[in-house]
Amino acid sequence: MDERFTTIAAIDIGTSKVSCAIAHIGGDGGSISVIGKGTSANTGMRKGVVTDIEKTGAAIKAAVDAAERLSGYRIEHAAITVSGSHVEGQNSSGQVAVANPVREIRDDDVDRVLEVCRAIEVPNSRMLLNVLPSSYIVDGQEGIQQPRGMIAYRLEARAHLITAGSTAVQNLEKCVQAAGIAVDDYVPASLAAAELTLTDTERDLGTVLVDIGAETCDIAIFHQNAVVHSAVLPLGGAFITRDVAIGLKTSLLAAEELKISYGTCDPRTASDAEQYNVPDEPAGRRIGRLELARIIEPRMSEIFELIAGVIANAGPEVTSAGVVLTGGGSQL
Description:
Helix content: 25-40%
Number of helices: 8
Order of helices and strands: EEEEEHEEHEEEHEHHEEEHHEEHE
Structural class: alpha+beta
Strand content: 35-45%
Oligomer: single chain
Distance between the termini: 44 Å
Strand order of the largest sheet: 3-2-1-6-11
Number of strands: 17
Radius of gyration: 23 Å
Shape: globular
């Protein structure tokens, strides 16, 4: 392999589709260049949980094959995203005495205090995915982001821990292995979305990241450049499609096409003067964009009311400078 770069791969396994990206990381460890990508429809999951290993495995393989053809590289392992209502976040804290005689905080002190944070009781039915330090306290001084090199007697840490259902993750890994890929790492979908969308300023000032997928909304709340709260809601764009199909008495395929092409959650921006043909109906039935918006608005209002509840549960000490929306549902 060319020593000037390292080849890596990531697979985003969603309820409605699977995406794979292959990239080169420069030898300096900084520059990233995407050299291949592939997407495939997925019908083997519900609300982020595998319901059909064969179908999900086939979707993963199709996405990986497309990325490999475009890049000219064959991948054998990748990091994968994990979503679904089985993914949960909780906060933890811990403290240790600084070990070395000169009282300088070193890497082993930071590792030990994070191990204390990690030492929570996790049921056998769940597995710990991530330990995300949010801040450190050095001899009572709060708000420390980087304690290494400081002189102290006591080091404390606050961290956000993300866990997931063991069987849900194991079934997801089995699907990836069925496609001939070994799993390098598990990345919560909200954290992956945050890496792509949030700036350092947004993370520092405080931002709610909402990734609206097909059947889940992944939420991560940042404060002072750290994750302080996370949650997954079992609602997404697919529920809006079903509402449109029921409201217009049409097929799911036609409802999805209307939603993507003309849908909006704000009736104020729509008019019944805007008329569109309902797809795949030979009689040529037409519907107004305002009628479509009035179907979409209540479901989106429900989703955002639940998001507001997640923000409220994060606690009064967490302030947010705004909300950043991403994912297919955000386009409404």
